[in-house]
Model the fold of this input.
Amino acid sequence: MKKMAVSCLILFLLTNMQAQTNKNYSVKAEYLFGSIMQHTRHLERLVKGPVMGAEVALEWQTMGEQNWHQYFAFPSIGLGVVGLDLGNPEMLGQLAAVYPYLNFRLYDGRNFRVNLKGGAGMSFLNKTFNNTATNLNDLNTGNAAIGSVVNVYFAGGGSLEYKLGDGFSAMAGFQWNHASNGSFYQPNSGINMLNTSLGVIYKPEFSRSFVPRRSEIPPLDKKWGAEIVLAGGARELYYRDDKMFPTGSVALNVNYQTGNHVRLGLGVDGFYDGVYNGDTHFKRTYLLTDELKNKFRVGVSLQPELVFGRIQAGIHLGLYVYNPLKNLEPYEDAKNGLLSKPLIYKYNIEEEDGWFYTRASFKYALTKHWFLSLGLKTHMQKAEFIEWGTGFRL
Done:
């Protein structure tokens, strides 16, 4: 898992940087200050002080060597390194992260620039449930937010830049940051942060003369397409079970490319989750027996994606059309009587998964037809599992 994540970082940078782009770079340094969102009850006792830290980054200006550079108004490709104190040294400790990102220019004036940034990578935390809990059977005595040292890291937000002269610019920003392991290990409430930033940017003199080049945009080869993706993984359901179970998915979609950089798909998703076997201490789903039917769910999803050359990334929004678990959650309600929920219903995400799911999707084309796929399936803010897969494109 860790090796594949590192490979994705390296692959992203190497395949999107050419010789001229390598020479056109800037250096960023930011001070971060913010807070952790208390999105679950476990975090209410863990969040103490503010989040504080710093980020340094190298950022390369795309120059038009690839067509997608022009489609997105010549964004910058960055590699950031982050260090954060999470405001509770004894329980939450410190976070370090490394991640690639794209920085899009929404407005670029003579001295003023507005940017939108998004990226994902790896994070490392020195305080987890295992080295903070005094009682390994009690979530209230340890860091219930994080169950592993190695986690994924997401960053997204906006920034303002103002040119000061002689290659220097001042910047201020606001961003959302997230760290979790995708429920690979439990407990895994995850950490969501809202951070502000102040910083400085320096662009070396030899880089200032480069100007992105525009070229004629070629027409789309075809607008309609179809894909199939097969993926697998593993996860824990509950920290007291101390068991790992297999997960899997198959996804079919038909898609239409609305432009050179955007496509919209409609898909059917089938999911297998081996944790639902009735053998758990976790009183959330009322399962007493191991039945195969309870391990499958089927949904339909809307799949908007951005296209960056060989890379496609997006957020899929899904609705379960077959979900035997919905009438087995919450635990006490299902235990006390037979539930019969409609397709869409009101629910509390703290007590059940519900009818809505999402997937953060990343695909990298190996050939015209074959691609690698990486997904994070969630129910609202709660991760279910990470999907590692491969796909075929018609």
Observations:
- The two ends are 28 Å apart (CA to CA).
- The CA atoms of residues 189 and 382 lie 7 Å apart.
- The chain has two domains: 2-207, 224-393.
